[in-house]
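TL;DR need structure tokens for one chain.
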Amino acid sequence: EVTYPDTYELRKGDRLFDLINRAGGVTRNTYLPRAYIFRGAGDSTNLRSDRLEVDLSGISDNELTDASNIVLQTNDVVQLFSQNEFGEQQFVEIFGEVRKEQKVTKYGGMTLEDLLYLSGGIKPSAEYGRLEISSVVDIDSARKSLKPTRTVVRSYAIQPNLQLDSAAAKIMLRPYDQIFVRKNPTFELQQNVEFKGMVRYPGLYPRLSKYERISSYLERAGGVKENANLAGAVLYRNKTEFFREKVVEKPKLDSFGIPILDSLSEMAKVVDEPVTIDLYKAMKHKNSKHDIVLQENDVVFIPEINPFVTIRGRVQSPLKIAYDKEHSNLMYYIDKAGGFGIKPWRRRVFVTYANGKSRRTKSFMFLRFYPKVEEGAIVTVPQRPETQDAGEIIKTVLVGSIPIILTGIIFKYIN
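>> reply
TL;DR here they are.
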């Protein structure tokens, strides 16, 4: 720790003080009680060097003793230390409702007001909140581990103008203080839900309370249009942070850090979770279990009436036909598609409705009870899986056992 550390030419009669002066002298941070001279350490071929300890405490007053102002030799290496290498850096930390949470190096005379300015000030969410200072008791003893450290917490109120009273602002901070700026528990920014599709006034609607139900929002949205499909209404709800972190796999990122989404379904896995709702019952029975409470960022989509039914899978002619209100029987629409095709799995026929719900065929003995069909429904006839009859199974077992039987016969013949 000198002004110009470097390699210098050794002159005849040079002492330690002469070399330090040529290097610009010591700095304000030089640690004077001890320095080292390593004899011959500058020669890389020298496998052994002696170490000399030197006290430079009198160098500032030009009062170095002969014992300290040692005569230097060729290839000597002089090492002076910095006080920063021996002193522990002191800091304070601030958390909570400030614009910049951080750990700050403490300087002499730092006040609470100084730290708040360095942290960008208090956020509006802390209005009428409180501020706490957690301090370590008996820091010197804590450093030396002479006894367990204890902490003391002091609390101060935050005024409506986001300021502290003058006495609190001028509090002197101590090393390792932790400051917590608490949020006002009643403070909340606006929270919105969104209605899309067949409502008279689609768009964002602010939550009037945490317990406002879907029927209330629909009234504010002007109600639904005549061609709205209430049975097909879907609620999209943001997944919680826990669900995203623990359940949903993280999407791959491109070189710009943007998620790569393979399809819309992948986006739905990451962003929204569809929730089926019964909007007809919600409007008819207000404040019931069907009239659910909406959360922040919920999106309600009410589709237009789809007058068609789709029949697909193992039927003779997969198609889309108009829904007939007089016929909700599934077999009516199977017949319209030409009847069952090759290898239909009749017990597994299912219907998917406009709101995403599905119902499958139920069986009792030799009877089958097919689900009803509604507007916008999709009828799916899956293929029956391949199965082997009893003869095929016996044949497979016998063919597989022939090598084992032959091996046993050969082994017996050899013995």
